[in-house]
Design a protein that fits this description.
Blueprint: H1 4-22, H2 42-47, E1 49-51, H3 57-71, E2 81-96, E3 102-117, E4 123-136, H4 141-174
């Protein structure tokens, strides 16, 4: 019987803490009813972000991920914000053998962004995101090309999610 008292006390404490947090104004960032500081729905504010074209295949992948995650596949809202992104790609050799051949590589994608108010042209938020994706090198050329492309896609997905989260957090508290 003695084990039940601490368990019941813990459950009661968790319930009290949950009720206490419900009144503090905390709301999930991606909840269906999440609003910005001005009272607009966060999903509508995110859909109003126009992502400028980014050069290169990885840039296009990053842009497409952001557009889809901001709009959910629907049509974009009227543009209130413009998002400019600059990327830098790097490949780092890993597991270098005595012969000089690398058995593995790490693809690194760095992105810096500026969120611009379309009406005033003023930069209202800026930030950066970095992702690294490792992949193995093989003797077959196509396998190397495919492994690198998969690493690029993984890195672009991670950077897109990071940028989206940073912008959503900014819009939820400032817009």
């Amino acid at each position: 019987m003695s084990w039940r008292s601490p368990a019941i006390a813990l459950v009661a404490l968790a319930a009290v803490a949950g009720f206490g947090l419900s009144a503090c104004g905390f709301q999930p960032l991606y909840g269906s009813g999440t609003t910005t500081a001005s009272g607009a729905r966060l999903s509508e504010a995110m859909a109003a972000v126009n992502v400028s074209p980014i050069p290169g295949r990885v840039g296009q992948k990053l842009r497409n991920e952001l557009i889809f995650s901001n709009t959910g596949g629907n049509y974009a809202a009227d543009t209130r914000y413009r998002l400019n992104i600059a990327i830098r790609e790097r490949v780092i050799d890993q597991l270098v053998q005595i012969s000089g051949d690398a058995r593995g590589q790490v693809y690194q994608l760095e992105a810096s962004f500026k969120l611009i108010d379309s009406a005033s042209g003023e930069v209202i938020n800026s930030g950066a995101a970095v992702s690294r994706a490792a992949y193995n090198r093989y003797q077959e050329i196509f396998a190397n090309v495919r492994a690198r492309r998969d690493a690029e896609n993984r890195a672009a997905d991670t950077v897109a999610e990071s940028i989206k989260t940073q912008i959503a957090a900014f819009l939820a508290t400032s817009a």
